[in-house]
Design brief:
The protein is of the alpha/beta class and 485 residues long. The protein folds into three domains: 32-154, no CATH class; 159-259, Rossmann fold; 289-480, no CATH class. The chain has 17 helices and eleven strands. The strands form four sheets. The chain has a five-stranded parallel sheet with strand order 3-2-1-4-5, with helices on both faces. A two-stranded antiparallel sheet has the order 6-7. Strands 8-9 form a two-stranded antiparallel ribbon. α2 (35-59) packs antiparallel against α3 and α2 runs antiparallel to α5. The radius of gyration is 30 Å and the shape is extended. The two termini are 55 Å apart.
Amino acid sequence: MERAEKGQTSTFSVRNPEFDVADEAVPVDAGVRSLRAWLVSLVDLVLMIAAIVVVTIVSWDVAELWTSSSVRLGLVVSSVVVYVIGSEGLYTRVQARRWPGAIVVVLRAVAVAVAAFSLVSFFFAVSTSSRRWMIVVAISWAVLLSGHHILRLARRGDGARSRVIVAGSPRAALSMRVALRADRRHGYEVVGFVVDRLTDDIPTMVADMALGSVDDLPHLVERHSADQVMFCMGGLDGDRFAAMTHRLNRAGVHVSLTDLGEIAPRRVGMARVHGRPVVFIAPAVRFGWPMIVKRAVDVSVASILLVALAPFLALVALAIRLVDRQSPIFSHTRIGKNGVPFTIHKFQTMVAARDDLVLDLRNDNDGPVFKMSGDPRITRLGSVLRKTSIDELPQLWNVIRGDMSLVGPRPLQPHEVAAAPISFRDRELVMPGMTGHWQVSGRSDTAFDELDELDRWYVDNWSLGHDLKILAKTVPAVLRARGAR
């Protein structure tokens, strides 16, 4: 396999002479690859049976251990639980390996087993104790969830990691490897890359870890004992991807499609158009009951804080009047949702009526959003207010009025919006906020390109849960005063 001269490309020419790409991959090692799944399911079954035995010995009588119909039925129920977990894909499927997914699958399996147990008990008149079987259910949940959590932790070790081959364009494949190494919860080890073309400008790591061409995948999977192949979007056309997926699945290898960017999984779905699978991305939720709840939380929390902090806010206003001898409140025009301007309120932290100095000052940011270390317009009291973000508290009134939200992209000035790229306008699809994604990420230290990326991610992936996470991170970010200016 040789790389082309500068500016040129080449394809992989080295192949196993005994391997014919026209042949189907024979699933001779499918059972070997699923051995770990069978072992995990067997452990689950043993743990469930152990839970029943323990409850029987402690709560009932040891003599009933092999004679009680409830115990024998419990053994059947344990098998049902393991079967349901297996059918849900927890033992093999990648998306179920995340801890929240494992919880949902296990709880669903136990619920199905309990329902089946109840029906069988009713129809066959099996006498049981509801209280005792609730103990069995509770122990089953605890045992299974603990076991799968331990398994998830074990996957972080090299000995229990799934071996993955990444296929696609060189840079997309390398980016996927970086992501897999950064998120070790899935337990993946990238054994190599598969790309059709090598050029002189591709990352060195891709060239060093290149295994062969896409057509060689079934053979490469066997040679490197890979459990899964990840295709980066754009690496293959639809028909070729479908054919290769069929061949790999027959060999017991899991196939996944990656590189959808930072789109929330809940927005991604599947549909069929004339028999062909289509991946669709639902728009971010910006209406309906989630937004109603968000607005209700905004008004409630802002009202409570404004009333509770009223004496403190009055003292701050008085201090500004006495120390800086100027109006305590600074009002200025900002651009809100849908590009509608509104008047924002803050405590005065700068020398009044000196916005013209902006033209003569050096912008520390690399974009249209003005940020400067040691801004000479900031007063001594204003510096304290800005570092502690106390100057932002009057914006609670903007939240109550409906100009702003507690969480959202920071509102920009009209001239900043005019100078920003078109992509930056996506932030206007949602209401601006007092705190947001980039405030808790780095506050004023965040570079402009990163500000743009963080704001667009928030707009595209908004959820109530994400807002709560940002609110929870805001207090530590303010206390650290990192990046505050």
